[in-house]
Specification:
alpha/beta; 7-stranded mixed β-sheet; 4-stranded mixed β-sheet; 13 helices; globular; binds pyridoxal-5'-phosphate
Length: about 425
Amino acid sequence: MPELSVRELLDLDRRHVWHPYGPMPGRQEPLVVESASGVRLRMADGSGELIDGMSSWWSAIHGYNHPVLNEAARGQLDRMSHVMFGGLTHEPAVQLAKRLVDMSPEGLEHVFLCDSGSVAVEVAVKMCLQHWRSLGRPGKQRLLTWRGGYHGDTWQPMSVCDPEGGMHELWQGVLQRQVFAEAPPAEFDEAYAERLRELIGRHADELAAVIVEPVVQGAGGMRFHSPEYLRVLREACDTHDVLLVLDEIATGFGRTGALFAADHAGVTPDVMCVGKALTGGYMTMAATLCTPRVADGISRGEVPVLAHGPTFMANPLAASVACASIDLLLGQDWRTEVKRIETGLRDGLAEAASAPGVRDVRVLGAIGVVQLDHEVDMAAATAAAVREGVWLRPFRDLVYTMPPFVTGDEDVARIARAVCAAAREG
Ligand SMILES: Cc1ncc(COP(=O)(O)O)c(C=O)c1O
């Protein structure tokens, strides 16, 4: 039984608890969730349920309170919830690494398990810098990316988020100065591809890696681009001796209609980051995968180890749930489910295209986006979605959804109606 009334809880929350990108004390009252099941969040104030159009930021692909994932967590809890990973190993971690290697693009063979998406990107960058340092090329320590990206909130990831208009603009001049290309156009443009090749070539001596979100740029603007650019990056990186890092933290595990967005292009990166849906949204865990080439480089150095080892590395509870989540995904016809949601979102969002104030409507896999021609009024847009019985979290000029893969057709239609209402009123 809850010990606090909703009012007491909100007062304490406002006084003591930071929320993402929030001021202290908080200014906007959050909704209090009492429990969640399937695709529905149950509100603690007795107002009923909301369909989750956000999958808890891309992660809850199987919905909430799933019996298979619950059982995986319970079973592991009875064995051990955690042991340190230095000098010890365990079956959940080994099973998870094997599954990740088997399902990810050919050639990625080594897995570093870590705590969150941002840390996975930190580890990826460390791997790349250390690879070149170990090979006697310490000058290769900058990163190249394209504008409009988002890679997390810790230090290295912030340096490759879009420095203008992005979430971390404040830190310009403090963060390491990276090399930025223009944001990728939606369609393939040979002139843009040529500029990318030229930029990589020009900076090759100082570049450790190119890092991008493949096919979908998420929190930097929910923009889609042609997978063909990944082939351009792969070729240019090979030509100029630069590593390629693909950040699949948002796009991985089927979200874009391919298991990994790199699969749309048939490209293997040197390093790949996954997170978010890795545990089906149950708990925090991410992973950085790399090829033997990257690992060999590191092991030839003066310091032949990857000096990274978080306390909760390879947490057995999270690893067990991640294994169960991957088995659940691969054991079903997930492509058909994602396609079904894509069709539902296309149909449901079509009316928004001609609505006043709407700049663009785009859908890819289980992702639907309405881009406005103005900054969204977040409170008004959220309230409009809630009136439709749906939870959405618009930002900047975007009202968007990426529902759990188990969302039924009627609920997808309702989510689309809520996106349209939020776009109209926000
Ligand atoms: C592409 C991408 N990379 C990295 C991250 C950071 O992940 P986390 O929030 O788990 O640190 C995110 C989170 O939204 C993301 O979308």
